Amino acid sequence: MKKLYEFTLKEKVTNKVEEKSTDKDGNEITITKDKTEEVDRVFFLKKPTRSMYDEAELYYGVQLSEGIKAGLLTRALLAKRFSNDGGIMSDTDKEEYADLYLKLFENQNEIQRLSAIKKEERSAEQAVELESATQQDGLIKKEIQEFEMAQASLFDQTAENRARNRTILWWVLSISYSEDNEGKVEPIFKGDSLTEKLAAYDAFEEEGTELEEQLLKKLIYYVSYWYVSSAQTPEEFKELIDAISEEEAKAESEQAIDQAVGTQEEPKKPAKKRGRKKKTEQAAVAQEVSAQSENDSSQS
After folding, report:
1. Better pLDDT: 21 or 189
2. What DSSP assignment string belongs to the chain?
3. Residue 72, Cα to own-chain centre: how many angstroms?
4. By CB neighbour count within 10 A (0-12 exposed, 13-18 middle, 19+ buried), where does 32 fall?
5. Between the CA of residue 40 and those of 14, 49, 179, 217, 222, what are the distances in Å?
6. Are 139 and 265 in contact, with CB atoms under 8 Å apart?
7. If you average pLDDT over residues 112-135, what whole number do you get?
8. What is the mean pLDDT of residues 45-65?
9. In whole angstroms, what separates CA 98 from the centre of its chain?
């Protein structure tokens, strides 16, 4: 069986251990104790076959049709409705959006002007101005990103989004496997039909151990990123995951810096970066897909 991506999780295992010692009379005694240790559990995503891609495409079409029948609008129809109502953004929103970009442009020009001055030649006042402008740059970008995300969220409840998230869950159920120390491979969600596999998934959610709960999050996380990317080999998948991890580390670092510096404005929720390379853009999209997929799967 070809693997798309392999990963390990730690599991706490408690075993009975016998310890021999002697009592005060010199007699040998055996004491049985519980010993807890962490062991590695290996899991992997199976590389999909051509027939699986065909089956997933059919499943997506069925889910899309069901969503439309249930009354969900498609993205095209929703966009048309917004257009008939004057567009997604009101005049006030458009002005606010334009003002934000103007502020960003002016602030970045100020940063470039001050950065052009050599560090040792900057006055104390210029150094303070540069630090302030740099902080403002991050704040303005966050405002723009949150504004854009709010506009994009209007398209969350569409037939396509529902079908996509259901299809991601289908992939999770279909390509998730475990491997023991002897190399024995078995599917994580056992069953001959999708209904049986969904029941196994629900059992993991409702009665699962700490390991199983962590495993579910990892599977949805990885499959969601893979679904919106072009990774087709273990090497490409690892490169994608590494890029995601690097981007998340940067986001956490920037958030920590913002909190350490402190501003007079109320803290805002961290937003995803824009203007990155293609893989990072895919990561941003996939992160939203992962969150939505996890939410949908918990409701299924």
Report:
1. 189
2. --EEEEEEEEEEEEEEEEEEEE-TTS-EEEEEEEEEEEEEEEEEEEPPPHHHHHHHHHHHHHHHHHHHHTTPPPHHHHHHHHHHTT-SS-HHHHHHHHHHHHHHHHHHHHHHHHHTS-GGG--HHHHHHHHHHHHHHHHHHHHHHHHHHHHHGGGSSSHHHHHHHHHHHHHHHHHEEEE-TT--EEESS--SSHHHHHHHHHHHHHH--HHHHHHHHHHHHHHHHHHTS---SHHHHHHHHHHHHHHHHHHHHHHHHHHHH--SSPP-------S--HHHHHHHHHHHHHHHHHHHHHH-
3. 25
4. exposed
5. 14, 28, 11, 17, 19
6. yes
7. 89
8. 94
9. 30
Q: Inform me whether the pLDDT recorded for 284 exceeds 80.
A: no
β-strand pairing of 185-187 with 3-22: unpaired
Contacts of 60 (CB under 8 A, 6+ apart): 163, 164, 166, 167
In the numeric block, which tokens belong to residue 235? Answer: 């090497």
Contacts of 193 (CB under 8 A, 6+ apart): none
pLDDT digits (tens, 9 = 90+) for 66-82: 999 998 888 788 777 76
Q: 163-200: per-residue pLDDT in tens?
A: 999 999 999 999 999 998 888 999 999 999 999 999 99
Structure-token match 């396509």, residue found:
160
Q: Whole-angstrom Cα distance, residue 278 to residue 284?
A: 10
Percent with pLDDT over 70 in the chain:
75
Q: Write down the pLDDT at residue 157.
A: 79
CA distance 198 to 189: 8
> Rounded to the nearest 5°, which phi and psi values hold at 16?
-85, 130
Is the pLDDT at 34 greater than 60? The verdict is: yes
Exposed/middle/buried for 86, CB within 10 Å: 0-12, 13-18, 19+? exposed
